[in-house]
Amino acid sequence: MNIRVRVIKSIEEKLPKIRWWPWRNVRKEIKIKYINIIDRHIFTVFSTDNMEFYLPLRIVDENPGLPEDRVFSYNDKLLIEAEFYPDYLEALNGNEDIVREELKPIIGKPVSASPLSLETTNIVSKLLLDNRDAVVVKSYRLLPKVEMEPLMFKKLALENYKHIPVLHYLYRLKDKTVSLVTRYVEGRGDGGYPFWKACLEYFRNRSSRGGLRIGLAGKLGGIIGELHYLLNKPGDKGFFGAESITGEDIESWIKRLNQRYEEILEVMDNNIAGIDRKRDLEKADFWRQLFEEKGKIVVEYAEKYMKLYQDRVKARIHQDLHLAQMIYVPRGEDFIITDFEGEPGRSPEERLMKEPVFRDVASMIRSFQYLSFMAYREVRGGTIHGIARKLLKNDATWQWRMRHSLSMTLSYISSIINREYLHGIPRGDLTQKYNEYLLPWIIERALYEILYEAMYRPEWVPVPIIGLLNPSIPAYEQVRYK
């Protein structure tokens, strides 16, 4: 059996159990499109179902501490994903088919490697250098048709945006970015950490001034405003840059709203059909009926206010901006954005779409709602269902998230108010009617979250439904739960 056949057999056997494989527990026949063996490294690109995957492997004598489902068998040796071994960068540099683009050289040599997470769909590992610095290697297993993240990282790095990790290298194989290397950011949790601590204190002691981080929320608004400016500077064209919104854009966004509403009901029905326990069935049915009854009204509101964007401006935005996409750095109380892959549930074509800049602000408002819900549950105790039922009648989280959302939003508006080319909204509307421009995107984002939860974590569905029916801005009284 030649090496190519052995590698294919080893990969096919292990793939169904790996987190990044799109077809969990399903074996697929793969076709090797590229293979190159350099010393103890095997670089492969393979395809299946019109998708291309990049999988670099390293031959090792023993498991370096990875879970068994991440270790491939290979004759009397083992194969591991090469990013989890310290000589991966050396091997990349030694592969003549791979082109390295250098933005800032690394000083030091990797001496150890470890995964930052094994639960992501792309590979993220930390390499410790011999000078005690560290870098992060991110590799794309499913090679994206739209290289959204590398394009945005490079653009922001060249613009000296201070709220991303330092970008060292981009590695490309056959015109596809397969890996990028950034400086490791030493932080304390994700971007939600300081707000989580404050929110816990707020619910434990309502009179505590320490339960609010209004100024920090305002700082986030400025960070987002600068992000949008640098992604859409005057004169930028193509993937970057601002453009006029057309009637077709608005029709497309409204169509998306209605499709998501229908998809949510369908997924909820499928979930209910698979529930045996009566008590669980009653819970699922309650949220399904509530969403069907109130959700359509909310979608109609979104359609109405979406039409305000006629002849306004769309731009390149983050698209999946939330607190967990950031690292909180206590020194200087700063935030570093680490992920620019776009919204996971979108098709490649949808990821290319530009949208109003307020869409990112709406996503952040939704993030504050998730955080405050979970903080309230942490303090009060109980199940997600039980807490959500309580908040339906009297949402104790609303004031906290409203105040932080408002601070962030007003700071954001202040940062973009003189850049009308970026949003196309008259100054008076921008300062006095921002709620009307935010509302359709808060609804759109909440619908995405409900669909995601229904598909992957059905017990979490009540969380975004609460935010849909009671957003952090004055909205629609007739959808309140009575």
Summarize the structure.
By secondary structure, this protein is of the alpha+beta class. The protein has helices at 3-14, 88-94, 148-158, 193-204, 214-231, 247-273, 278-306, 348-352, 358-380, 384-393, 398-416, 420-423, 427-432, 434-456, 462-469; strands spanning 31-38, 41-48, 51-60, 71-74, 77-81, 98-102, 110-117, 123-129, 134-139, 167-173, 176-183, 243-244, 313-314, 326-329, 334-337.
Spans with pLDDT under 50 lasting ≥5 residues? none
Number of helices: 15
Q: Would you identify the CATH H-level superfamily of the largest domain?
A: Aminoglycoside phosphotransferase (APH), C-terminal lobe
**Total count of domains:** 2
Q: What is the top-level CATH class of the largest domain?
A: Alpha Beta
Sequence of secondary-structure elements:
HEEEEEHEEEEHEEHHEHHEEEHHHHHHHH
How many strands, what sense, and barrel or not for the largest sheet?
Answer: 6 strands, antiparallel
Class by SSE composition: alpha+beta
User: What is the total tally of β strands?
Assistant: 15
